[in-house]
Structure to design on (77 residues):
């Protein structure tokens, strides 16, 4: 399935940011923007999640439009 829909890999970003990387970022130091590192990481992951979902959605829309164009070409033949 992912062979035909590589844009869906963007949906792995939140999973990696929230779950996979968590054991390595569970630190109090360094302090970034006045926040301990773990809350900063969670904030950054929360802000990046809508971006990654949006990129996956755009890729899906682009794929859908190209498939519709192909179908229209086949019908017009």
């Amino acid at each position: 399935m992912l062979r035909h829909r590589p844009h869906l890999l963007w949906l792995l970003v939140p999973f990696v940011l929230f779950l996979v990387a968590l054991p390595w970022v569970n630190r109090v130091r360094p302090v970034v923007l006045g926040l301990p590192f773990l809350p900063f990481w969670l904030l950054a992951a929360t802000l990046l999640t809508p971006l990654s979902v949006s990129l996956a959605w755009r890729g899906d829309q682009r794929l859908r439009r190209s498939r519709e164009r192909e179908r229209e070409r086949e019908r017009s033949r």
